[in-house]
Target: Colicin import membrane protein
Amino acid sequence: MSTNTVIAIVVAVVVVLLVILGLSFMARSARDKKRRAEADRIRDEAREESARVEKREAIAAETEAKARAAAAEAEAKAAEAARLADRAASHRDEAASSREQLDSKFQHADELDPRRKDDADAAYALAEKERAKHEDLNDGTHADHVERVEHDPQHRVVN
Model:
């Protein structure tokens, strides 16, 4: 083989290698471009989804804040209810004590009243009518009240 042939073969091989290298470079470049485009598309979708997720997070935070406020309000209402229940129990105890004292006074008055025969209710009603008459003479406002006054077995005035 002549030197020219060897040079031509070497040049041809170099050219073929350069063409293969160029094609490989272009294919790699095209693949990278396609991957960059896919990555950009995925990032855009992620940004859009991120906005939706941020909105959901804001709604969740708002709902959690409302839940905490409702729980605090419920605790305050429970404390108020307990305080009112204690006050009601105190009033009930005081009323029961006062009722016992009042019943004792009625019983003592019934024992002292010379008009009382065996009917404490009748004696009480008579005393109420006399008291009402006395008040009617003083201010004239209880005349119609006297007719409506009745007496229950526990000496309470009932309208």
Observations:
- The longest strand covers residues 150-151.
